[in-house]
Amino acid sequence: MSDPIINKVAKSPLITIDLEDFKTEGPRTFIDVSQWLEDGFLLREKPFRATLKEYNWIKFKNHHVALDCTSEAVLPAWTTLLITTYLSPYATTINLGSLKDLEKQLFSNVISALDLTHYVNKPLMIKGCSDPSIPEAAYIQLIQRLQTVAKSLFYGEACSSVPLWKANKK
After folding, report:
1. Nearest-5° angle of CA 39, CA 44, CA 48?
2. What is the C-alpha to C-alpha distance for residues 90 and 86, in angstroms, rounded to an integer?
3. Cβ neighbour number for residue 169 with a 10 Å cutoff
4. What pTM was estimated for this model as a whole?
5. Which of 10, 11, 19, 13 is nearest to 124 (CA)?
6. What SS3 string covers the chain?
7. What is the pLDDT of residues 53-76, one digit of tens each?
8. For residue range 74-90, what is the model confidence (pLDDT) as tens digits?
């Protein structure tokens, strides 16, 4: 009679962390400031303010918004600040930059607030081959936080992992 098959992965103390679980819910929207500029380049303050005042901002309710200008217009510093005052009552998040920049910020917020207590002195697997929309910066920030408490860090899947770091034995 042969020995029973033992699932060593299931019995392992290894904790798998999947960054897909950290993804912030809600729609992402890019707002291009150039849409409110004359010919996409010229900001005249009075018409600009009037346009913003009349704009339908409620459509951004509960959105995560990336705010930037795609034209090469040189804008005064107050431009995005003024737009933010109109967006703030509706948008969940407002970030200056691209949608990629917004995604980095959303992950950064979650990782910064992560409770690390259940990762203390544990071997941790950071799941690889996840959603390609997860920024690489999120993995880097997560590793930096986990290194402060973990016993060891791996990347990949339990069946095929890459060791990244191991705490010094004291």
Report:
1. 85
2. 8
3. 5
4. 0.88
5. 13
6. CCCCCCCHHHHCCCEEECHHHHCCCCCEEEEEHHHHCECCCECCHHHHHHHHHHCCHHHHCCCEEEEECCCCCCCCCHHHHHHHHHHCCCCCEEEECCHHHHHHHHHHHHHHCCCCHHHCCCEEEEECCCCCCCCHHHHHHHHHHHCCCCCEEEEEECCEEEEEEECCCC
7. 999 999 999 999 999 999 999 999
8. 999 999 999 999 999 99
